[in-house]
Design brief:
5 helices, 6-stranded mixed sheet
Length: 216
């Protein structure tokens, strides 16, 4: 990534005008620290109207990798429909390039630099219930439901950290997970969860690329 773009993104974390701001989510574990040949998109937080969401996508080029910068205070209810629109725009573009990907941009405070989480193959569902999806799936999928209190698995509640540690200490247990997120989770909370899941290196744990957003 060009140094000028890094400076631009970091400056957006402070202010984007009189009533627009963009504060990047903070993560720790993603190992992706450089993406070349990029186009940025920005989803802003409005300090005067918290229900208002504004997208700036003027510089998006379909043949490049996309960096989607989302303010960490926005809820999934606010941010994900816009992300879906961006994904559809790229998938339906007349000019395409094989191998280009989509990434969420975040900030690692420990190293004071940008990090990225890929979401190229993620398909978000906001109007379909996860129960209907799981019934159509051949394998025995297990649902992880995330809310502001943590994660629910098999009717038991865990903190996200405790659940991820549990997966790490049982390396031989096979799981096929489908992720289900409460729509009032902040984008910060969402990326924190995704970042923690990256630390599970167990090849017996599979996570579906279909993710569901449910109303609280």
């Amino acid at each position: 990534m060009k140094p000028l773009l890094i400076i631009l993104i970091l400056s957006l974390c402070l202010s984007c005008g009189n009533d627009k701001e963009l504060q990047l989510a903070e993560i720790q574990y993603s190992e992706i620290k450089e993406v070349l040949d990029v186009s940025p998109a920005y989803i802003f937080y409005n300090t005067k109207a918290e229900d208002s969401v504004e997208l700036n996508k003027q510089n998006l080029i379909s043949t490049t990798n996309w960096l989607v910068n989302i303010d960490k205070r926005l809820t999934l209810q606010q941010a994900i429909p816009i992300v879906i629109g961006l994904q559809e725009k790229k998938r339906n573009a007349s000019h395409k390039k094989k191998g280009v990907k989509n990434y969420f941009t975040a900030f690692n405070p420990e190293v004071k630099n940008l990090r990225f989480i890929e979401f190229t193959k993620v398909h978000y569902h906001v109007n379909t219930t996860i129960e209907a999806y799981v019934k159509t799936f051949d394998d025995q999928a297990e649902v992880l439901t995330f809310n502001t209190n943590g994660v629910t698995f098999q009717e038991k509640q865990f903190t996200v950290n405790a659940f991820v540690n549990r997966l790490k200490t049982a390396p031989n247990q096979r799981h096929v997970f489908v992720l289900n997120f409460e729509n009032q989770l902040s984008f910060q909370e969402y990326l924190h969860i995704k970042d923690l899941l990256l630390t599970v290196k167990n090849t017996a744990v599979l996570i579906h690329t279909n993710e569901f957003i449910y109303k609280s």
